[in-house]
Specification:
- By secondary structure, this protein is mainly alpha-helical.
- Helices cover about 60% and strands about 5% of the residues.
- The protein has two domains: about 30 residues; about 240 residues, no CATH class.
- It has a three-stranded mixed β-sheet, with helices on both faces.
- The protein starts with a helix and ends with a helix.
- The structure holds zinc ion.
- Zinc ion binds next to helix 5 and helix 8.
């Protein structure tokens, strides 16, 4: 009896130690913004998600038979990627795909740079510069590795301690597989959103586009009445909005002394013509 009790106390004590160690690890991982994954993990994870998305045309109906639409958006992506502040263009694939869904005003990017743009977003926006601003924001999520940082914060300690999936070091795919439910794990925090906005502005500085173009997107969301429509709810799933974000863009433009844009930085006319041809 006594020995069994001792054994139990011992087990409880040991699991307490493990728990405390895990909590300590977690605190350190979050505080330091650590990412326990390698860039190649981000790429593999992105490729896996891309495969899952392509295998689910009901939820993600990828546009077929209109290569000019994809190449138009891809051309904007390439302009943004040419920014000297983009660091992973040689190691992340950075490919774009169009999802034919007018009801969803959204775009998202997996780790490793698989970018998806909904026709709903393209039709919602008024000029090419706004789309460039949103694409810059998506690229920043990949560049800054927001998703794998979040996975590290949520599960990193368990993974490091080998408590989740044994001692198998290549667990990123399995973890991600468990997390991949309706893009839930691509939901970004407020800080990540703000950081992605800041990088978008920085990337656009080296392009022909007005650097603060993402603000037109925020203004339109505001004008559309917040979260009342279902398409905007979907947008909020992966990119929670905040009033601060619009103010942040204004402040940055003032700080950089960027004057109000001319049409030559917005590309409104050519974009409207492009939109008319969208299926
Ligand atoms: Zn975002």
């Amino acid at each position: 009896m006594l020995s069994r009790m001792r054994h139990n106390i011992h087990t409880v004590f040991r699991s307490r130690i493990a728990m405390l160690t895990m909590l300590a690890y977690t605190a350190v991982l979050i505080a330091c913004g650590v990412n326990i994954y390698k860039d190649s993990d981000d790429v593999n994870l992105g490729a896996q998600l891309d495969k899952e998305i392509r295998a689910n045309p009901k939820e993600y109906p990828i546009m077929q038979g209109r290569p000019e639409v994809k190449s138009y958006v891809g051309g904007i992506v390439q302009k943004v990627l040419a920014s000297p502040d983009v660091q992973k263009r040689a190691i992340y694939p950075y490919v774009v795909e169009i999802i034919q869904d007018d009801k969803t005003i959204n775009a998202f990017c997996t780790p490793g740079g698989y970018i998806y743009v909904y026709t709903g977003l393209m039709k919602f926006l008024d000029n090419e510069a706004s789309l460039a601003g949103v694409l810059g924001h998506e690229i920043a999520h990949a560049e800054r590795r927001h998703a794998t940082k979040r996975i590290t914060a949520a599960h990193g300690a368990q993974i490091l301690l080998g408590e989740v999936l044994g001692k198998n070091p290549s667990t990123v795919a399995q973890i991600a597989g468990n997390l991949f439910t309706n893009l839930g794990f691509l939901k970004n925090s407020r800080d990540d959103e703000m950081e992605a906005d800041n990088y978008s502005m920085q990337y656009l500085r080296s392009t022909d586009y007005y650097p603060g173009s993402i603000k037109y997107f925020f203004e339109k969301i505001g004008a559309a009445g917040g979260s009342s429509s279902s398409s905007l709810t979907t947008l909020f799933l992966t990119h929670p909005p905040s009033e601060d974000r619009a103010n942040n863009v204004q402040a940055k433009m003032a700080e950089w002394k960027v004057p109000s844009p001319a049409e030559s930085q917005l590309f409104t006319k050519s974009y409207q013509a492009f939109k008319k041809k969208l299926p």
